[in-house]
Amino acid sequence: MSSKSVYVVSLGCPKNRVDSEVMLGDAGAAGHRIVSEPGEADVIVVNTCGFIESAKEESIETILEMAGHKGEGRCEELVVTGCLSQRYPEELAKEIPEIDHMFGSGDFREVIKVLNHKGARKELPILGVSETPAYIYDHNTPRVITGYRHTAYVKIAEGCDRPCAFCIIPKLRGPQRSRTIASVVKEVQDLCAAGTREINLIAQDLTRYGVDLSDKPTLAQLLAALEGIDGLHWVRLHYTYPSAFTDELIDVIANSSVVAKYIDVPLQHIDEKMLKKMRRGHSARITYELLERLRSRIDDVVLRSTFIVGHPGEDDESFAKLCEFITEAKLDHVGAFPFSTEEGTTAAMLPHRVPDEVKLERQAELMELQRQVSRAKNEARVGHSLEVLVEGISDESEYLMQGRWYGQAPEIDGSVYLSNCEAQIGDLVQATVTDGSDYDLAAEVVAGPAQ
Ligand code: SF4
Question: What confidence tens digit (pLDDT) does each residue in 411-426 have?
């Protein structure tokens, strides 16, 4: 079998990125060459996102851009995978005939068949999309970690069984399916043996981990099993669900030596009426109690959340309540997204639509309130001592390095700009904060890399 060169574009969320890394792992394990430029590839794979309108547009633009490498370029086969091909396989095949093969969000391990195929392109079917995605990788699955070696995402479960009105993900990613604790522990051990220091745990809903497994392991038990792994420094929790925090889970986070005191918990809204319309399955009281429980039992806990503005039914009063909450709750990191009508969701049928311009005004207003909260928190950190994971030369100045403290997740939160830093990428240094801005910190290194 002659080896082929392959280029993978990974769009959307870190869960999709893990799938892309598995596709690269399969390609590498089969002897194919992974290239970093589409122009050098025999086969181009676009791993798409289909979550909301803007993501769908970006995916289609990227497919068309990559299709440009066929014909005069070296590319022989264009493959599309992920959520957009899971959602619109027939439409894509009709609209973009340059696509040679399409796989769903749970079928990406079929891509290797395209790479290994010797015969004519047309011998393989165009569509390889399972109606209900059911796959999840494990510790034996080949995977190429893209990006820095010192930080990696580990998917502990895929899919979602919750009924949130605005969300198409259960239809795109299928029902919840979890990996075993043993499999996750083995993967984390292997990653840390290869130099990873920070593990970002991901799923559609981290807090429902294990509910689908016969022995019903819990997230708390999984976190406890990650204690003591050589080289592991931070375990970060992404995509938790507000009404699913047990006392056991909070205690494990509070007392753990590796779980970063950082919790990402999408709240979406705070107004009772909106939580009902969104079918979030819990009241605002649960949210207030959760913040109280987390802050009273986890020292210096850092909280990230996301909110949807302009969901059908959101009037000025509901939005005012959300603004008040942002100012009062003083969350550390917030993302706000304008509601996107996604056919196939229950919210797509709801009345009382909010005009697009109002959605954008509300998004801007909410993010301005949060900017003020974030700045005040960062300014209050001046003089504090932080442990910082060094990530490279700063994008602000060649005389500065940059990194993140436990309160900053990769790719979505700000950075710490480091002066007096002699350390290497992946090192952990001690630094004193000298300045705080809207989303970033400046700090001076006072102690070199932890040995
Ligand atoms: S929990 Fe998250 S992924 Fe699941 S339906 Fe709700 S918003 Fe979507």
Answer: 999 999 999 899 999 9
Tell me the C-alpha distance between 303 and 265, whole Å: 7
Q: Which atom of ligand 1 is nearest to the CA of 170?
A: 5
* Dist. CA 332–CA 201, nearest whole Å: 19
- Adjacency order of strands within the sheet including 151-155: 151-155, 198-202, 234-237, 259-264, 302-309, 333-338
Q: Does domain 151-380 have CATH number 3.40.50.720?
A: no
Contact 60, 24 (CB under 8 A): no
Backbone angles phi, psi at 445, to 5 degrees: -70, 130
Q: Residue 238: which residues within 8 A CB-CB, separation 6 or more? A: 14, 200, 201, 202, 206, 264, 409
For 70, the token pair is: 């066929």
- How far apart (Å, rounded) are the C-alpha atoms in residues 218 and 246? 10
Cα separation values, 284 from 242, 273, 289, 367, Å: 10, 10, 9, 21
Domains 151-380 and 385-450 share a fold: no
Helix H or strand E segment including 253: helix 247-255
Bridge partners for 309 per DSSP: 338
Which residues in the chain show pLDDT less than 50? none
User: Which of 169, 177, 212, 278 for mutating ligand 1's site (highest number of atoms within 8 Å of CB)?
Assistant: 169
CATH of domain 5-128: 3.40.50.12160
- Ligand 1 pocket, 78 CB below 6 A? no
DSSP string, 181-214: HHHHHHHHHHHHHTT--EEEEE-SSGGGTTTTST
Domain 385-450 classification at class level: mainly beta
Specify the pTM. Answer: 0.95
Sequence ranges of the domains in the chain: 5-128, 151-380, 385-450
